[in-house]
Amino acid sequence: MEKTKEGMTQPKSNFSEWFSEVISKTELADLRYNVKGFLVHRPWSVIAIKEMYKLYEAELEKKGHKPVIFPAVIPKENFLKEAEHIEGFAPEVFWITKAGNTELTEEIALRPTSETAMYTMYAKWIRSWRDLPLKLYQSCQVWRYETKATRPFIRGREFYWIEAHDAFASREEAESQVKEDMEMTENIMHKEFGIPFIFFRRPEWDKFAGAVYTYAADTLMPDGKALQQPSTHLLGQNFAKSFGIKFVDRNEKEKTAWQTCYGPAIWRMFASVIALHGDDKGLVFPFKIAPLQVIIIPIILKGKEKPVLEKCKEIKEKLQSCFRIDVDFSDNTPGWKFNYWEMKGVPVRIEIGPKEVESEEFVVIRRDTGEKAKVKENQLQKTIEALGKDLTKNLVEKADKWFNGMIHSVKTLDELKEKRNKGGFFRVNFCSADMDGKECAEVLKEKFHLNVRGEMANREEKPEGNCIVCGKPAKVVVYLARQY
Amino acid sequence: MEKTKEGMTQPKSNFSEWFSEVISKTELADLRYNVKGFLVHRPWSVIAIKEMYKLYEAELEKKGHKPVIFPAVIPKENFLKEAEHIEGFAPEVFWITKAGNTELTEEIALRPTSETAMYTMYAKWIRSWRDLPLKLYQSCQVWRYETKATRPFIRGREFYWIEAHDAFASREEAESQVKEDMEMTENIMHKEFGIPFIFFRRPEWDKFAGAVYTYAADTLMPDGKALQQPSTHLLGQNFAKSFGIKFVDRNEKEKTAWQTCYGPAIWRMFASVIALHGDDKGLVFPFKIAPLQVIIIPIILKGKEKPVLEKCKEIKEKLQSCFRIDVDFSDNTPGWKFNYWEMKGVPVRIEIGPKEVESEEFVVIRRDTGEKAKVKENQLQKTIEALGKDLTKNLVEKADKWFNGMIHSVKTLDELKEKRNKGGFFRVNFCSADMDGKECAEVLKEKFHLNVRGEMANREEKPEGNCIVCGKPAKVVVYLARQY
Q1: Is residue B6 classed as helix, strand or coil in its secondary structure?
Q2: Is residue B283 part of a domain?
Q3: In chain B, which residues have pLDDT < 50?
Q4: A185 FRET partner, CA 20 to 30 A, in A278, B211, B340, B451?
Q5: Could you report the per-residue pLDDT of A350-381, keeping only the tens digit for each?
Q6: Angle CA A238–A244–A250, to nearest 5
């Protein structure tokens, strides 16, 4: 499989075309479903996405969350309870108005997010300080009528995520949950999936509808545009007051609960995995989430087929309790198979020919660097385990290095104009992240197509100088980027 | 927790009340969500349901299925392609007609089942005999506007299942898939979940809309009513013709594919797990799917708290890589805790007091039989593993024994009248399972509230005598039951 219509034809430097091609050629998804903005997910993405869910769910459970499953529909009356929330989401809601031939008396919404489904129940479940903290999550899809162009795994009218909704007795506990959410993002999204990010405190005009504040993790795509990854919100008591989530404290006094919510969008993380780690040859999967971790390629010489094929089968059977492993028994040539499984992003390839059967020593090749090693049969398991870890570590480091090089400090609009084609984040002095600053943000958007992503969430940066737009004394340092 | 408002008050012999009470008292689900027929699933059910999914998915993958995720919505035009199918499902479909403030130009359906979503893509994916068999499954929820009374886990307007959709080059292969589906039902639903069943070939008037034939596994609930569990359908070429699923065979000839589908409804299996294994004290979970497999209860004597609590923690930490295990550190009395965790259905309880700390020998109690054993600390893991297997085996055997005693052969309508209060299945001679027999089936339904479940799917039974209703020579032996 050379540069034919079967293999990749686009280099990754043509990112947009490369991204579309890699999704279709490696059979991650099919875009031809006949409802606009809805994606058909094929096994090659689903297996990886399931592994990503498992890792994230295990981390949430380690931090005391328990799983729930709420209905996919929300009655209109629930939406109406939190004014900002309905205002923010109303334009995006899909409404069910009919069942069979019956017009429903009250329209029901397909959930665009689950606050207003869950918090009616939280009000029933939370009675006393003994019921707190309440930390629940659900893995589910949500539906939003996006009017912007949709792109697979990046923006769709149906997407797959986890949402964690927590309630506490005090603001302090809620704020430390926001920190814990940021830690989980680091532990899983960065260390396991290899997605670098910065948590920004979103400016007032861009926070979650109904939140006190929003911390959102932005990563970058290879074209230098920012892609929002999980956000965690201090909801404060806004929803709790609207939904009546109250508890009796240790002193028998009635109090209102404090809430947070956190939304790791696995689907979108998968977009980053494809985009950040892939190369001109195709996909490169971090080891733990690869749909197939090891592929065995038989190297067959005429008349010596049998011992080779048997050895391949034997190795697969030996290792299949440790890894997702398979043998390519197809009629294609070894060269075609090498290219094919490289394109599919399988982390480890083992080549087995007659020589290897005899010596019980196999050639093992890793996808990220192409390095080859000879490995004794009884060392295979250990070697692959170590190699898997190292491959993931290498992907993390490479992505980090690139990401860190994409942050540019900029002093003036002229400098911004000159540098903006570099892509990435532009660190600038800015008048204000409160509503006062909205006007300057709009100037940046109109003139440069740059969005204010916010201040760094976990590092205070003191501005020195004046707002890059209006020239008034800067109150904050913010980061700008083009966005998906 | 004695017979107070906190514990179970209904004996299982009042099945309907017991079922409602056990769901609410053990916090499996909450029925108070404000959309009729939609259920809120709490952690105690979700953890078990996830384990059930895992076991079933592993079995499907072992048999060559791969996971996919299809959109939850289906455009109307897809439905219109298979005439019988749309006729069967039309009254139950929820329709999305609006998004934000926009009226959609074409209404879209929330999937009631996914044939018409998936097969448009199968037509694109299947080109040659090399693409066959195509065996895919998805784990998802479906929505049906049920007009009958809904009951948690039994019948709802939203329910959780797996659907496997397979395509083959020949009818023979498709028919052997139907057999494989029946085997999977045995391997997982019977052996792991302890749900006995009979596969019936549904009569013509009761088969799946669009199928050539339907084999459906019926189990029984404790009140003697049948509950349909997975069904597997030979779809033949009906859908393939409507959707254009064709392939070029080895001789370069264009052929139409043969299809099957299989629908293990995990949600409904969970209803059977609750109903079949529970007792007057509450739930009893088969070991592998228990949300918590082992609960440790500290037995505290004043002044001797510390070593006991430390030992409890130590044992939990030692065993938590093998089992879902926890310690009840709450302020409640040991007696209250015993009753509480029995009600919750935890398979194994370990009691640890000062004596046990000293002797390093603990009392281990199993939930199903209440048997106690003394177990040395270094034997705990092995003992619990063995005990878990034995507990599941015991639940399977008990359920089987009861189930087999609920099958009654009946010769006349008088005998049927006399025995029908026993519940279960009534084996009778019947004129015909083709459309000819529909009239007699309606008589049984009207007079006795009994439904014709069909002939045994995997055993041919020769009728001897005449139809129990019309007296004409019987062509088949069928089984009758009241149904959920």
Answers
A1: coil
A2: no
A3: 2-3
A4: A278
A5: 999 999 999 999 999 999 999 999 999 999 99
A6: 100
Domain total in chain B: 3
The reply to whether A7 falls in a domain is no
Looking at the fold, whether A302 and A270 belong to one and the same domain comes out as no
> Model pTM?
0.97
For chain A, positions 86-125, list CB contacts with chain B under 8 A.
90-102, 107-108, 110, 117, 120-121, 124-125
Task: Work out the minimum CA distance from B97 to partner chain A, whole angstroms.
Answer: 6
Residue B415 and residue B373 share a domain: no
Give residue-wise pLDDT tens across range A220-250.
999 999 999 999 999 999 999 999 999 999 9
Listing DSSP states for A260-287 in one string gives: EEE---HHHHHHHHHHHH-BTTB----G
For B335, the domain range is 294-387
Last residue within a domain, chosen from B387, B420, B436: B387
Residue B31 lies in a domain: yes
CB-CB under 8 Å, B39 with A75 = no
Chain A partners within 8 Å of B141 (Cβ): 72
A254 touches A261 (CB < 8 A): no
Inter-axis angle of helices B380-404 and B266-277, nearest 10: 90
| Alpha helices, DSSP H, located in A90-142 | 115-125
B143 touches chain A (CB under 8 A): yes
Q: What are phi and psi of B359, to 5 degrees?
A: -85, -10
Categorize the per-residue pLDDT at A4 as very low, low, confident or very high, splitting at 50, 70 and 90. low
Point out the residue among A30, A33, A68 whose CB comes nearest to the CB of B43: A68
A140 contact B CB<8A: no
Using CA atoms, how far apart are residues A333 and A301, in angstroms rounded to an integer?
11
Tokens of B350: 């370990």
- Judge whether B308 and B354 are in contact, CB under 8 Å: yes
Please list, in sequence order, all residues whose beta carbon lies within 8 angstroms of the beta carbon of residue B58, skipping any fewer than 6 positions away. none
What's the token pair of residue A309?
């094929």
Residue of chain B whose Cα is closest to the Cα of A69: B41
Distances (CA, A) of A303 to A146, A300, A309, A327: 59, 9, 12, 20
Per-residue pLDDT tens digits for B416-475: 999 999 999 999 999 999 999 999 999 999 999 999 999 999 899 999 999 999 999 999
A324: CATH: 3.40.50.800
Residues A182 and A325 in one domain: no
Looking at residue A164, its pLDDT comes to 98
Query: Is A67's CB within 8 Å of B50's CB?
Result: yes
Question: Dihedrals φ, ψ of B107, to 5°?
Answer: -60, 145
Task: Kindly state whether residues B435 and B366 are assigned to the same domain.
Answer: no
* Complex ipTM value: 0.96
Nearest CB among A50, A66, A92 relative to B43 is that of: A66
Task: Output the six-digit token pair for B391.
Answer: 């507990």
Distance from CA of B260 to the nearest CA of A (A): 19
Distance of CA A124 to the CA centre of its chain: 32
Residues A111 and A199 reside in one and the same domain: yes
Q: Which residues of A touch B46 (CB under 8 A)?
A: 66-69
Whether A114 and A66 map to the same domain: the answer is: yes
Any domain includes B224: yes
The half-sphere exposure of A416 on its side-chain side, counting CA atoms within 13 A, is 24
Helices (H) and strands (E) in chain A, counts: 14, 23
- Shared domain for A70 and A188, answered yes or no, is yes
In a shared domain, residues B228 and B370: no
CATH number at residue B436: 3.30.110.30
Q: List CB contacts (< 8 A) between A145 and chain B.
A: 99-100, 102
Query: In the predicted model, is pLDDT for residue A304 greater than 90?
Result: no
CA distance B286 to B352: 24
Q: Please provide the distance, in angstroms rounded to a whole number, between the alpha carbons at the two ends of chain A.
A: 33
